């Protein structure tokens, strides 16, 4: 959902008044420094990384008051096409020893949000960024804005939704737990528009992430929040996603409420790791009276296959299926007529041509100090380099700074107010600058983002 950034300068009246921040990460303040158990070491910003006092300051400081410039990602990624690279990963002996030691310390049903996990099972990206992966093929969602038939439009939304799962790391990999106040911003360029995505960690205990995406020129915005829970089940670890994201189809006055499957890591007792998606997810549109139900299946203990699903698209009024869905979410999904199973089509398939259609994700430059890529950069570099000890140390630094900062807040009775999202009446979170007004091509030129605020540039007279 994004278009090429214009290079002309902005006048002050075009920019939101949100203050400034030294994006280099260097501190410039007077006053005493709070104590911290962290060592003073240099980070990628050239600053001391990271005391509790710094962490508190970064949480409170506004972002730079200037339009964000986005550029292509250059970071190494561990994402692979699951079908081409398999699902399972063998653990080395050192990894097995760490896992067995961890299993001895946890109980069945235990919440793992406060448990320090070994870095070899970490995916080198924040959970805030992980959610943005659902827009890897946002061109499919944009295409639904040109479909006039409600049923065909629902099929298109389902196709987009399922397109976000096939890229994943091998074995069991868990994204970083975002810290309170962490942000993630990215964008994508489309031929005629731009898409923007913003995520913020609005709560740490419980861990809640809020999200907003916008491409108003194409008639799309999305808003939602998700509570992430991790539990130990004896032979597996589950990551449960509670909450939903609502996609607003502005042109048609429709809202699609979307939920997500849970993820389960298995094989810790046997040394062969595999991640599976499981659970019933729904895509509901009350305005059109349509609903999609998709059941992600776990592989049975004996026989069977990984990564299968079954589903249906039906009317809310009678729950009778109109179309059935079946297949493997990492390879191919088929859509068939519920009344005539011989009449069907391939909804989508993971082919080289399909993979090449995915849009290039653009990241902000420069970044805010608590931006996911900047915050976790040293951990990510160490994981990619295979230095698990360094990754563990760097991750511990960040987590300790957050704990120390939380202790200071509690001692001083200081609350925390998220930058970009506010609580709503349904128990979730809403983007402060939420805008689902129809695009006015006579007045509006393009969307842009500055300091986390997605705004519209007007046509110049």
UniProtKB/TrEMBL annotation:
Gene3D superfamilies: 1.10.287.2720, 2.40.160.120, 3.30.70.3490. Residues 1-40 are annotated as: Disordered. One of its GO terms (cellular component) is cytosol. Residues 21-40 have a biased composition (Low complexity). It comes from the Eukaryota. GO terms for molecular function: sterol binding. This is Oxysterol-binding protein. Signal peptide: none annotated. Belongs to the OSBP family. PROSITE patterns: OSBP (PS01013). InterPro entries: OSBP_sf (IPR037239), Oxysterol-bd (IPR000648), Oxysterol-bd_CS (IPR018494). The lineage of its organism: Eukaryota, Amoebozoa, Evosea, Variosea, Cavosteliida. Coiled coil: none annotated.
């Amino acid at each position: 959902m994004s278009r090429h950034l214009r290079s002309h300068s902005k006048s002050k009246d075009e920019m939101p008044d949100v203050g400034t921040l030294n994006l280099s990460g260097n501190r410039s303040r007077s006053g005493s420094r709070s104590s911290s158990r962290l060592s003073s070491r240099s980070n990628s910003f050239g600053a001391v990384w990271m005391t509790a006092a710094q962490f508190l300051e970064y949480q409170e400081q506004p972002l730079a008051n200037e339009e964000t410039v986005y550029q292509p990602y250059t970071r190494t990624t561990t994402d692979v096409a699951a079908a081409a690279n398999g699902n399972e990963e063998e653990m080395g002996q050192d990894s097995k020893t760490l896992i067995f030691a961890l299993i001895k310390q946890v109980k069945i049903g235990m919440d793992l949000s406060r448990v320090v996990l070994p870095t070899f099972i970490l995916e080198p990206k924040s959970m805030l960024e992980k959610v943005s992966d659902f827009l890897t093929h946002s061109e499919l969602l944009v295409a639904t804005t040109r479909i006039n038939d409600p049923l065909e439009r629902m099929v298109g939304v389902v196709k987009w939704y399922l397109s976000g799962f096939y890229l994943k790391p091998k074995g069991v990999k868990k994204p970083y737990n975002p810290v309170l106040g962490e942000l993630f911003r990215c964008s994508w360029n489309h031929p005629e528009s731009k898409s923007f995505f913003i995520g913020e960690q609005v709560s740490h205990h419980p861990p809640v992430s809020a999200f907003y995406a916008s491409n108003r020129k194409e008639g799309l915005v999305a808003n939602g929040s998700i509570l992430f829970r991790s539990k130990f089940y004896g032979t597996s670890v589950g990551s449960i996603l509670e909450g939903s994201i609502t996609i607003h189809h502005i042109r048609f006055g429709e809202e699609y409420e979307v939920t997500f499957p849970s993820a389960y890591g298995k094989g810790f007792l046997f040394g062969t790791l595999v991640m599976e998606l499981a659970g019933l997810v729904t895509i509901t549109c009350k305005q059109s009276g349509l609903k999609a139900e998709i059941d992600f299946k776990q592989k049975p203990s004996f026989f069977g296959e990984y990564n299968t699903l079954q589903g249906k698209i039906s009317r809310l009024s009678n729950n009778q299926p109109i179309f059935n869905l079946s297949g493997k979410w990492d390879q191919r999904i088929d859509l068939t007529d519920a009344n005539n199973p011989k009449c069907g089509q391939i909804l989508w398939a993971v082919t080289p041509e399909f993979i090449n259609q995915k849009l290039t994700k653009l990241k902000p430059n420069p970044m805010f100090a608590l931006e996911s890529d900047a915050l976790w950069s040293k951990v990510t570099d160490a994981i990619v380099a295979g230095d698990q000890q360094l990754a563990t140390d760097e991750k511990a630094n960040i987590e300790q700074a957050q704990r120390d900062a939380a202790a200071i807040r509690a001692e001083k009775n200081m609350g925390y107010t998220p930058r970009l999202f506010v609580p709503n009446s349904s128990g979730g979170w809403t983007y402060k600058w939420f805008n689902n007004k129809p695009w006015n091509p006579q007045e509006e030129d393009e969307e842009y983002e500055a300091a986390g605020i997605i705004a519209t540039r007007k046509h110049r007279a």
